């Protein structure tokens, strides 16, 4: 899952507030686009507008798991699969390699990396890279290498691949329903370049690094882990080009802070060349993207839709657009680590009662999607099998705490001697969230809370409110996929409530009963059994009042009529899932 702003297979959505440097800046602003030339090779430039900043070349870590990072790197760092096509389902990437389940008992999946697969610097993609991936994703060495989540991979044996080898197996000690997307893939599950980490970690050779990864002494890996966790962060400039080799059709070659990222054709890519030679990703506020599209400054946008924006797109000429469902939902997270809600179910229930969920949907979503409704389940989209059952399983809690009742909220505060309780409500700075925050603050202040609402540009950053637990209630969106493993870590007990340790469980909620249910749903091979378990999970989330679901995000994409092959995608990969196919006529 990825926060729309941050990314696991459930990505946090910085959605317009939703899921790495010797600078090689690009002077190309996308205004001199050309069509593909007759030679058939990559040519021309397509410019994509995105609101949130690109801030790390490694979005597999808990702190860098954002939609923005994932969208920039989607065609730069690749793997065996991605969430693709119009339905956002997992799609194998046979250009990277092949994989096959060869046994159910024990569950065993064999992987083979393409013999021709190399990093853009010419280094083969092989066993060293796989072992670095496995070490991080399995949580080995007590999570020394940061990862968004370890579901599934923590139950696999260390791959027995040889130095320089291209084949390996994942052998599971337990059944795992989402095995297809457990292996190295796209987004926050990608393979990172082990030869770079080895060098930065002080190892003389990749072989020595591989030996250390197979060993039992974490101290010799500390420098390598420090680089893996923090060395790819962008602090005003790109890392040196030698530190950011690509495994996809594009390379990151230019970066202007708070302005743009430039991707150019990776000539060492062994697969199908991209259509456009250059992709420029410009950082533009959602509110300005439609005008920039009309002016020809950018070619493709995927903003957080508002009424004005939808009307503006509808009335514009030379623009194509589509509104669609997506696996992204807005919610409120309580802080279980500190603050007034950490140990008080009653106060969490009181806050739920004052939140104007119906008003938020009526004012912010229904003008774009008239039949939109309040969301009453977190882990199943309204159009997917199991949603109605999840709602039914939680109905007693939804009836009691799911509809705004300011008077009852005030009564609870009086009973708890908590009238005037200060609540830090934090979110990302954008118009829709500012509007939502104002509505929530006004209603909950009427109930007797003292809501201090803040929206900041760095909300999703490593030093921002979400990562640093500097909130009592956090408002953001999760962008995900149909996978159960995508949302599983969001409610699982964490090793430590730190930016590096909490993964997707931003509020650091913990309940052994929940952990057991989460384990069971990952092992469920029968779809109805999975739906039944998901329904139990939803009921417990309502019972403990862990989060408050608000609404499903509608997706909107618009592009210039001269741009070809833009295909909206409802998953966390979003519109850029096939960016390598974009071209201008």
Automatic annotation (TrEMBL):
GO process terms (BP)? peptide transport
Ranges for domain Solute-binding protein family come to: 101-484
For this UniProt record, the keywords arranged alphabetically read as follows: Signal
**Which segments carry the region annotation Disordered?**
25-52
Q: Which domain of life is it from?
A: Bacteria
Q: Known InterPro entries for this protein?
A: Peptide/Ni-bd, SBP_5, SBP_5_dom
Q: Which residues form the signal peptide?
A: 1-25
Which is a Gene Ontology cellular component entry for this protein? ATP-binding cassette (ABC) transporter complex
Which segments show compositional bias classed as Acidic residues?
26-35
Q: Does the keyword Signal apply?
A: yes
What are the GO MF terms of this UniProt record? peptide transmembrane transporter activity
Identification of the protein by name: ABC transporter family substrate-binding protein
Q: Signal: is it a keyword of this entry?
A: yes
Check the record and name the Pfam families matching this protein.
SBP_bac_5
């Amino acid at each position: 899952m990825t926060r729309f702003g941050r990314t696991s297979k459930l990505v946090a959505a910085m959605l317009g507030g939703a899921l790495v440097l010797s600078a090689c800046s690009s002077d190309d602003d996308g205004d001199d686009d050309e069509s593909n030339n007759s030679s058939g090779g990559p040519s021309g430039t397509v410019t994509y507008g995105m609101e949130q900043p690109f801030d790390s070349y490694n979005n597999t870590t808990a702190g860098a798991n954002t939609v923005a990072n994932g969208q920039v790197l989607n065609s730069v760092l690749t793997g065996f699969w991605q969430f693709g096509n119009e339905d956002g389902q997992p799609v194998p990437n046979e250009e990277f390699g092949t994989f096959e389940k060869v046994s159910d008992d024990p569950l065993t999946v064999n992987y083979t990396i393409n013999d021709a697969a190399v990093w853009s610097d010419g280094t083969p993609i092989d066993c060293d890279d796989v072992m670095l991936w496995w070490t991080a994703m399995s949580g080995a060495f007590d999570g020394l290498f940061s990862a968004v989540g370890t579901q599934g991979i923590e139950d696999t044996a260390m791959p027995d691949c040889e130095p320089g080898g291209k084949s390996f197996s994942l052998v599971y000690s337990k059944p795992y329903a989402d095995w297809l997307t457990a292996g190295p893939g796209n987004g926050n599950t990608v393979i990172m370049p082990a030869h770079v980490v080895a060098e930065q970690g002080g190892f003389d050779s990749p072989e020595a690094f591989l030996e250390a990864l197979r060993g039992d002494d974490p101290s010799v890996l500390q420098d390598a882990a420090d680089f893996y966790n923090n060395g790819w962060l962008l602090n005003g400039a790109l890392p040196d080009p030698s530190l950011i080799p690509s495994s996809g059709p594009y390379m990151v070659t230019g970066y202007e802070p708070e302005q743009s990222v430039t991707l150019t054709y990776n000539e060492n890519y062994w697969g199908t060349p991209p259509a456009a030679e250059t992709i420029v990703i410009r950082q533009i506020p959602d509110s300005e993207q439609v005008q920039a599209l009309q002016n020809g400054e950018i070619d493709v946008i995927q903003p957080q839709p508002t009424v004005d924006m939808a009307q503006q797109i509808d009335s514009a000429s030379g623009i194509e657009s589509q509104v669609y469902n997506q696996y992204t939902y807005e919610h409120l997270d309580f802080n279980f680590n500190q603050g007034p809600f950490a140990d008080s179910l009653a106060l969490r229930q009181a806050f739920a009662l004052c939140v104007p969920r119906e008003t938020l949907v009526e004012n912010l979503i229904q003008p774009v999607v008239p039949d939109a409704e309040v969301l009453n389940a977190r882990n199943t989209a309204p159009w997917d099998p199991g949603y109605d059952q999840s709602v039914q399983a939680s109905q007693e809690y939804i009836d009691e705490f799911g509809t705004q009742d300011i008077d009852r909220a005030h009564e609870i505060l009086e009973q708890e001697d908590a009238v005037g309780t200060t609540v830090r409500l934090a979110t990302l700075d954008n118009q829709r969230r500012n509007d939502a925050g104002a509505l929530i603050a006004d209603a909950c202040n009427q109930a007797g809370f003292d809501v201090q609402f803040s929206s900041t540009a760095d909300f999703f950053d490593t030093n921002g409110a979400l990562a640093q637990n500097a909130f009592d209630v956090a408002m953001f969106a999760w962008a995900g996929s149909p996978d159960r493993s995508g949302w599983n870590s969001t409610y699982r007990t964490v090793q430590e409530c730190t930016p590096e340790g909490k993964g997707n469980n931003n509020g650091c909620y913990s309940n052994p009963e929940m952990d057991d249910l989460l384990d069971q749903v990952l092992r469920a091979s029968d779809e109805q059994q999975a739906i039944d378990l998901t329904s139990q999970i939803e009921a417990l989330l309502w019972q403990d009042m862990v989060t408050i679901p608000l609404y499903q995000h509608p997706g909107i994409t618009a592009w210039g009529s001269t741009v070809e092959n833009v295909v909206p995608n409802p998953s966390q990969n979003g519109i850029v899932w096939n960016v390598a196919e974009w071209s201008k006529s």
